[in-house]
Prior knowledge:
- The chain has a single domain, classed as HUPs (Rossmann fold), CATH 3.40.50.
- It starts with about 50 loop residues before the first helix and ends with a helix.
- The protein has 16 helices and 5 strands.
- It is globular and about 60 Å long.
- It has helices at about 50-60, 70-80, 100-110, 125-140, 150-165, 170-185, 200, 215-225, 240-245, 265-275, 285-300, 305-315, 320-330, 340-350, 355-360, 380-390, and strands at about 90-95, 115-120, 140-145, 190-195, 250-255.
- It is mainly α.
- Helix 3 crosses helix 10.
- Strand 1 (about 90-95), helix 3 (about 100-110) and strand 2 (about 115-120) form a beta-alpha-beta unit.
Amino acid sequence: MTNVLSATTDATPRERRSPPGSAAYRRCVRCVMDTTDAEIQFDAAGVCNHCRTYFARAERELVPEAERESALAALAERIRNDGRGREYDCVIGVSGGVDSTYTAYVTARMGLRPLAVHLDNGWNSEQAVRNIERALAALRIDLYTHVLDWDEFRDLQVAFLHASTPDGEIPTDHAIAALLYRTAARHGVRHIVDGRNLTTEGILPPSWSRGHGDWMYIRSVHERFGTRPLKRFPHYGLAGLAYYGVVRRIGTVSPLNYVPYVKADVMQVIQKELGWEYYGGKHYESVYTRFFQGYVLPEKFGIDKRKAHLSTLICSGQIAREQALEELRAPIYPEGLLDQDRRFVLKKLELSEQEFAAIMAAPPRTFWDYPSYSRHSLLRSPRLLSLYRRLRK
């Protein structure tokens, strides 16, 4: 989950992407990030800011190998102590993907009593549903599923398409975070165990996706382009964030930063022990995600999210740069699925081919073109963030 306060420290935005073939195009000499990220910066040696940031974060966030076992045991003990007398001692989000499935696996091995929470936004693939059911049955973890009001959510997704920003999946991410907070508070637990991890997710340019925790941004897009009120959509603003974080003292922990996390090895483990099935790409357990990342982002915005995912794996030593470049030469969309997914998505969103063509042809815009918490200088104050962190302790 993205903390809205920690996500509001961006400098003045720039939107000058330089695609392959243009005179200003550059690619990092260490990873495969390039100037399709409008905010990328290179040092004198040609290494990008994403590589430098990754290694700086690794120093802070990854538990050293010699300390992993004891640190994970201490984390488990703290969560168990805080959950004494409760039916559950933590909540975990599950989507059917690699990270959340392995998080459930690690959480069970930590001896915790999690409640798994799944947000059904109407776009689950059949594989995702099977993955969730099989994994949780094998691990004996209870599941709570929240089904979004489809008419509201469809209206919100279409509004984001009309907003013409690359942030079209922000509504789902925000609703998941809100649902986890709400569920933790309902059950009186203080810990949300999430699948975020540096070694497979450490690089994601803010210019490609901003505003996950920014309710003002989401609301402003919907107020401008939506057609119906959002009465049931899970959300939280600044007051809600303060309530969950300071009053209820709910926080997130990321155990995948405490364990060796080699994606290829992890996939073998969950396939063998939990009956998990691969679905073809990062976050492709959702049909909409597959279509948005595989078609809308590259066709309209020139964004290929594989570059960020592969660059993270390069920095974490899981693949070589040459291998990543070879993967980028392959088609971005799973073979034979594009036409099928396109028809399905447009029908489900109630968009005609003409309406969708107009959306794709509209000039790209950015997060900064709409009202948001991030545009308020007070909320970008390091002092405010420091105060919030102190109050949560």
